[in-house]
Design the sequence.
């Protein structure tokens, strides 16, 4: 983000509520949900940036939200177009109650160093699970309060994995490895 974009973001956050931020960020990704085998979930973890409940597996992240990570599910960010490739490579089926949530984004450069806590909080706040929703909203509220008092809070990110150096090479062939 260049200085002008950062300034505009800081200015737009002044006096905003959690609900305002959630509405403003609602189109940050195209969200798709799939059903996958446990083995596929394990392999998929190597190709996504974890968010939501999946980010709780990263060191220290569970403590930030007061949640514990689990197994058998995945929620993460991928570059636009990758979900279709992953669907083919891992024989996944789209399902509203699936165990894999892929959030396709076109601004992957902003996530090269991991997913910001604020993005994880937004994703949790949109969860159907009450505990996750509550934790996400609580952390968003705290981030907004910290911002109002001290300015932009320190950057904290979930860095347990990342996009490959050249994410354009995410093809069905190398995903299945």
Sequence:
């Amino acid at each position: 983000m260049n200085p002008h974009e950062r300034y505009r973001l800081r200015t737009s956050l002044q006096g905003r509520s959690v609900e305002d931020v959630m509405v403003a960020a609602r189109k940050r990704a195209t969200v798709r949900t799939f059903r996958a085998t446990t083995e596929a979930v394990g392999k998929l973890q190597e190709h996504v940036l974890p968010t939501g409940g999946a980010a709780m597996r990263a060191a220290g992240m569970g403590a930030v939200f007061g949640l514990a990570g689990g197994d058998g599910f995945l929620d993460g960010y991928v570059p636009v177009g990758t979900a279709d490739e992953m669907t083919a490579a891992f024989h996944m089926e789209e399902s509203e109650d699936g165990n894999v949530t892929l959030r396709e984004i076109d601004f992957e450069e902003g996530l090269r160093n991991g997913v910001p806590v604020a993005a994880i909080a937004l994703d949790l706040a949109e969860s159907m699970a009450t505990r996750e929703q509550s934790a996400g909203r609580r952390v968003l509220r705290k981030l907004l309060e910290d911002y109002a008092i001290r300015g932009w809070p320190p950057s904290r990110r979930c860095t347990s994995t990342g996009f490959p150096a050249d994410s354009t090479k995410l093809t069905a062939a190398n995903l299945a490895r």
Q: What stands out?
A: Residues 17-175 form one domain. The chain has one domain: 17-175. Confidence is low (pLDDT under 50) at residues 160-177. The first helix runs from residue 3 to 13.
